[in-house]
Design brief:
Elements lengths: L1 H23 L13 E3 L3 E8 L4 E9 L7 E6 L4 E4 L10 E8 L5 E11 L5 E11 L1
Parallel strand pairs: 2-8
Antiparallel strand pairs: 1-3, 3-6, 4-7, 5-6, 7-8
């Protein structure tokens, strides 16, 4: 009886391991075989002069020109003066999305800030730039 239980347990473990291995190796059903490719409308935005203590929204747009979904896994500003909004959903091939960066201009003078977007693509880090001058 113990042998039958052990054999059944062993076969169940092998079957479950095989199923999980197949799930982990999935390349996705939305793929055409062509890699994901991000094409930005622009990666650099000059705001010119903006008023102090007047949060300003900056919109960056890109389109997925590849054959696989793009997933934004992280977005990080170069300082605490930026808030970043982006889609947590995959950007399907042929679709576009927007990244909204809100810059809270507190310090007078010239500024140059970056936002680093991390994605599931070959060049996983994409750096966006905003610059300008904060006036009273």
């Amino acid at each position: 009886m113990k042998k039958i239980i052990l054999i059944t347990l062993f076969i169940s473990t092998l079957t479950a391991s095989n199923l999980f291995a197949q799930w982990g190796n999935s390349t996705g059903t939305l793929s055409s075989g062509k890699e994901a490719e991000v094409v930005w409308e622009t990666m650099n935005i000059d705001l010119g002069e903006i008023k102090q203590y007047n949060p300003t929204d900056v919109v960056f747009k890109f389109i997925n020109k590849g054959g696989k979904p793009i997933i934004i896994t992280n977005a990080k500003g170069s300082c605490g003066c930026t808030e970043i909004e982006y889609s947590r959903k995959p950007i399907l091939p042929g679709k576009s999305t927007e990244i909204v960066v809100t810059y809270d201009a507190e310090t007078l003078g010239v500024f140059n800030k970056t936002v680093t977007m991390t994605m599931n693509i070959e060049k996983s880090s994409q750096v966006l730039h905003i610059k300008g001058t904060v006036i009273k």
